[in-house]
Each structure stands twice: as structure tokens, then as C-alpha cells.
Amino acid sequence: MERPPNRAAAIDVAAEVLIGVLDSATSRHHVTVPPTQLRVLALISERPETNVNRLAELLDVVPSSASRLCDRLEATGLLRRVADPRDRREVRLLLTAPAENLLGELQDRRHRAVQAVLDRMPHRAQHELLLALLAFGQAAEAGTSAPQAGTSARTA
Length: 156
Hints:
Helices cover 63% and strands 10% of the residues. Helix 1 crosses helix 5 (97-118) and helix 3 crosses helix 4. The termini are far apart. Strands 1-2 form a two-stranded antiparallel ribbon. It has one domain (22-139): Arc Repressor Mutant, subunit A. With 156 residues, it is mainly alpha-helical. The chain contains six helices and two strands. Strand 1 (79-84) and strand 2 (87-95) form a beta hairpin.
């Protein structure tokens, strides 16, 4: 009797391949911003009301580590700290135009790299993959509403 495939392992392998495709789209174009800093920019782009404490939570690091990351990004002209107009004691993190351009270019490159792989797949398989990924995303979001035990902040 044939053993059923280990779905989790197969998905893990496929995810690693996808990450490789996405990473190669970035690295081939000599991006000088380190991956951790790119992640910070992406998080802030997705959440415009982010402050340093919220960024630290999102990165699962201590606030001083998040602040140092912001210092580096600010020094390179990719990030600005501004007072929150509703509460001047709060400082919001804003992307600069060069940061927004960089993220847009990277997204375009990544989309083209993924599309090149999709173009080598049968149309039906592309459609099935899309449906499966949408269902996976919904299931993952449903699971994130429960609090996670045993997490602790790290330094970046």
C-alpha cells in the first residue's frame, strides 16, 4: 500500500521554492537595503498609523531594536518620524517617496518573477493554485485570532 504524501512537507518545499523565486527577483537587481529593513518598510506601508512600539510588536523585538532599525532607515532617507496630529506625544513612522518607489519596484519585480513561473504551468493548475492559496490564507487568518502563548520579544 502506497503511503499518502505528507502535505505539510510538500507545502513547506513549495514555499521554499516560492521564497527563492521572490528573493532572486530582489537580489538580481542589487537592492542595497537589507532584508530586515525592507520588511520594516513593507510593514509600515501596510499600516500607515504605525509607531515604534507597534513596529516592535509586529517584528517581535524590543522597542529599542525597532528604534535602531528606524534610525538606520531615517539616515538613508527611506523613513521619517513625524508627530501624530491627534496626539503630539506619539511619533508616527512614514515612508518617504524613495521608499515608496523602492517598494513599488520590488513588488513589480517579484510579480514578474512569479508570473514567469506561472506561465510555465497549465492554465487549470494556475487556477487551482490560486483557489488553494486563497483558502490557505483564509484558514491562516482564522487561526491568528487566537492568542499565541509563549512568545517573547527578541532583539533585531
